[in-house]
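Why show two proteins at once? Because comparison is the fastest way to build intuition. When a single record is shown, students tend to memorize it. When two are placed side by side, the eye starts asking what differs. So, the first record is below.
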Amino acid sequence: MAPWHLRSSEDLDENATNNCKNAGLKHPGLYESGMCHLRTYGKRVVNTTNFVDIRNYDWICSAGTVICDGQLGEPALRKSYGEFRLMVSNHCAKKRLDTMQ
């Protein structure tokens, strides 16, 4: 299991980061944009990636181990993200068609 936190201000992010640092956690993942501050921390038992910065303000992270098509870590997260984007895209396209009928 890997902890992570998402905060809406620098002060809250700093406070949460200090608490995690004091607990001995190391943070390999960091994402900041405007009021969004995300930090992910390394897994304690299994050494797999749990944060991927995709592009254009998109990212994916996990607290547990993601297994997708037999893959772990970054490949599994990227595959999960791709499948999620496809599902959302298909859902939005169907909604547009439904409103046109």
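Second record. Ask yourself what differs from the first in the token line.
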Amino acid sequence: MGTKAAEHFDDPRLVRLQNRIADLEKQIAAIPFAEGRRVTVDVATTPTRVEHGLGRVLNGMIVLGTSPDASVGFTVGQEIDKQGCYLEASAAATFTIWFW
């Protein structure tokens, strides 16, 4: 078994495959979306401070779910900082949001 395993590690096809996988891992790690955080938060119809916990200014958000149905967006004119942002909803609701 030891000889056969050593032969596999010397196989140029396997080395190319490993190199491609390593390149893909680097590309995925460089995507800001991948370095996100899921947060469930209650948002009102007035500016609501939401702590995203990223430790950096966020790049964006995706709403994963809401209860009851409502829409949510960034509050115009409010600062987005390393700790959080302000959101407003069309109706008071609980949102599950992916911040990245």
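One difference worth noting in the second protein: The helical segments are 2-9, 12-29.
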